[in-house]
Amino acid sequence: MRMGPHHMMPGDADAVKDQHLASGTAKRVWSFARPYRTTIIIFLIAILAAALLALVPPFVVRAIIDTAIPESDRGAIYVLATLAVLAALADAGLAILQRWCSARVGEGLIYDLRSALFAKVQRLPIAFFTRTPTGSITSRLNSDVIGAQTAVTSTLGSIVSNVVVLITTLAAMFALEWRLTLLTLIVLPLFIVPARRVGKRLQAISREQMGYNAAMNTQMTERFNVSGAMLVKLFGSGRRERRAFERRAAGVRDTGISSAMYGRVFFVALGLVGAIGTAAIYGVGAIMVVNGGISTGTLVALAALVTRVYQPLTGLTNARVDLMTSMVSFERVFEVLDAPEAITERLGAVDLVQPRGTIEFDDVVFRYPPASETAIPSMEQNAGLTADTDPDIDVLHGLSLSVAEGETVALVGASGAGKSTTISLVPRLYDVTGGAVRIDGLDVRDLTLDSLRRAIGVVSQDPHLFHESIADNLRYADPDATDDRLVTAARSARIHDTIAALPDGYDTIVGERGYRLSGGEKQRLAIARLLLKNPAIVILDEATSHLDNDNEAHIQEALERALEGRTALVIAHRLSTIRAADRIAFLDAGSIVEIGTHEELVVAGGRYAQQLAAGELVAPG
What we know:
Oligomer: single chain
Number of helices: 24
CATH topology of the domain at 13-337: ABC transporter transmembrane region fold
CATH superfamily of the domain at 13-337: ABC transporter type 1, transmembrane domain
CATH class of the domain at 13-337: Mainly Alpha
Strand order of the largest sheet: 6-7-8-3-9-10
Structural class: alpha/beta
Largest sheet: 6 strands, mixed
Distance between the termini: 71 Å
């Protein structure tokens, strides 16, 4: 018997507290279970058949005691004993069939739900990921999916089984002797009342245990990635971390002991009540046998059946809690599946074919979308965020800029001027609020997302690398790239010699986020990855910041190769990178206030010249 939502992940316990299912949830659950309806029907039939087969042994014993033995009918004894054996064999086969059905439906549902969730999360806007902790996302794909699967298999199967067993057993008992059956039902309050109270207490303990688990897992998640481990070693205290972890682990231990003891005492008490009920059957039934009211075989059969009444009754007292707990997991899955997709393809979107790379920002106005359009409240709250932390103000104001094919334009300005926001509009990480962004004269909103993003390559300040080999990270840009192409791209990015010097070469695992590589090496790998993609448009977001002179020289060489024949938007503070641009656009408060070459802007003596004089643009050395 399951007494609480133990299948849910720590921190999710409050999700079932005072919860009411939304209308239509059951219908949507069935839509996911529909492909398995035949298997589910077989599963339910197997449950019914098993419940009926379980009635065979008591009736066989009754027939042996009341008929076969008094009549010394050996043949009847052989037949009845064989029938009992066949029933046991059939019951074993049905148990295996039930397990197969349960596994097929359960694992199938997990696959379907995870696939649907993964596809959905991939379609969500980048704003969703900026507001939602990674742990909340993975929790939905793991714990909630498993909880949803439990609703259809374990919980539903348990409820159906308990109902069927209870009905068939009571029917058989009433057929044998209705008075003793009513006597059996008199002790039901001794089951139901304690089951409800202990069930609530166990749920409270379970919530407390989940809270400790959540804190413990959060500590491990934050401390056991590379950045967290470095911070602990440099600023923290191992002893302090251990004490905090041990305190939380002790909470898990103590609540686990309490839960185990409550459960054990409860089941021992139920066993005693069951023993009392069985004793009552034997006591009263024996008197009835002596008085000639019933046969000895009937009494033995009733005593065997009475034990089958109390267990399902006890299980059904918590059926609503169990079902609600499991169904809430479905609701949390549906919450993600129903999340708004801010960036979608318009009906009739066209492919960007053989892109030339011209870019036009036409009177662009932009403000970050509200949380209601990009976030899932229950996931966001896990991070302690308020309902909407994005200011309801325009970040870009009538920004206009045309970039010719093959031209490099550097975007400069103070922090918060809108540079990163501007470049994020080109690959449609966000959509403009007003105006338009065009590539080759086509509004990016009229293009298919795949073709748009195939035409754009990005190298950021801290390029992300997966915990895979160097070759796998490079091939993320082109899964079909040959080894020769990898080497060519790496040579062009001035990183091949470094890779070749590694013991495992291109098979070297780079570590989480590429932490086994230096900043400059990660940058050059990102440039090699960009070259493999071979985009028409290149976006560089502070790709040379925070590098020493040697690394900068290597990366500048790599960037020159990467930018050949391509249109580029470059955000930079390094003067060497800025001066290499064909034009420089100076942004202030979301608008372009100056544009021209380095020499033209210096002569003009405007904001760019002032920033240069103030040393905010970094010169080499």
